[in-house]
């Protein structure tokens, strides 16, 4: 039973590869039949679980409610999408986002639920570090707007450089990963090499200090909650 449940969960999640827009598109009839089969298996597994569980216990279990709601949402979305497809009306399968619910909420997925519960318990404790990092990012973005926005600098593509505050926030956020380094600072560097100090300071504070601190807080809190959960 456990192997069959995991197989159909994996099959249900794999449909995203074959549904439009897809990497390997299959006819809608094929993917819809496979999805209906998976949902029937999930419903059968839930029914079997209901027969061996006290009724009041079954209906008080949030996991069972989540699975039932996910099945209903998937069937509703599938029916609506099929009808719209008959009338050549383009739409999207919004119920795809509920498919991981089956992976998490079945009784066989106890270890996965523990991991997610640890992540959920860790989030409030890392909020302060994250807010501090965002404050630093916003302040550096404001400084960049004041430093470079009034100098009419241009990027290599001829676009305005650091003129829009939200675009600056995004560019500096990407710079934290060093994915756009050193391209993001070249217009300012070409104007004056001293402006490189701004970007060096930004990378040292946000990439090397804040990201290391963020990782340490996440790791320590996650490990702490995992130990408590497993009775360590």
UniProtKB/TrEMBL annotation:
Residues 6-224 form the Ion transport domain. Residues 1-16 form the signal peptide. It is found in: Membrane. One of its GO terms (molecular function) is monoatomic ion channel activity. The keyword rRNA-binding does not apply. Its main location: membrane. InterPro entries: Ion_trans_dom. The chain crosses the membrane at residues 26-44, 65-84, 126-145, 165-182, 194-219. One of its GO terms (cellular component) is membrane. This is Two pore calcium channel protein 2.
């Amino acid at each position: 039973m456990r192997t069959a449940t995991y197989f159909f969960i994996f099959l249900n999640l794999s449909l995203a590869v074959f549904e439009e827009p897809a990497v390997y598109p299959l006819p809608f009839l094929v993917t819809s039949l496979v999805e209906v089969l998976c949902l029937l298996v999930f419903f059968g597994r839930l029914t079997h679980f209901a027969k061996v569980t006290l009724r009041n216990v079954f209906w008080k279990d949030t996991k069972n409610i989540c699975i039932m709601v996910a099945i209903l949402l998937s069937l509703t979305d599938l029916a609506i999408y099929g009808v719209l497809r008959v009338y050549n009306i383009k739409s999207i399968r919004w119920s795809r986002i509920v498919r991981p619910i089956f992976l998490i909420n079945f009784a066989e997925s106890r270890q996965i639920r523990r991991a997610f519960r640890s992540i959920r318990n860790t989030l409030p404790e890392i909020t302060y570090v994250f807010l501090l990092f965002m404050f630093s990012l916003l302040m550096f973005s404001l400084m960049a707007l004041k430093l470079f926005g009034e100098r009419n600098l241009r990027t290599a593509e001829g676009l305005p450089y650091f003129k829009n505050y939200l675009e600056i926030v995004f560019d500096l956020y990407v710079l934290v990963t060093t994915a756009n380094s050193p391209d993001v600072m070249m217009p300012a560097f070409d104007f004056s090499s001293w402006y490189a100090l701004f970007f060096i300071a930004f990378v040292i504070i946000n990439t090397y200090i804040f990201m290391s601190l963020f990782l340490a807080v996440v790791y320590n809190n996650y490990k702490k909650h995992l130990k408590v959960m497993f009775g360590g």
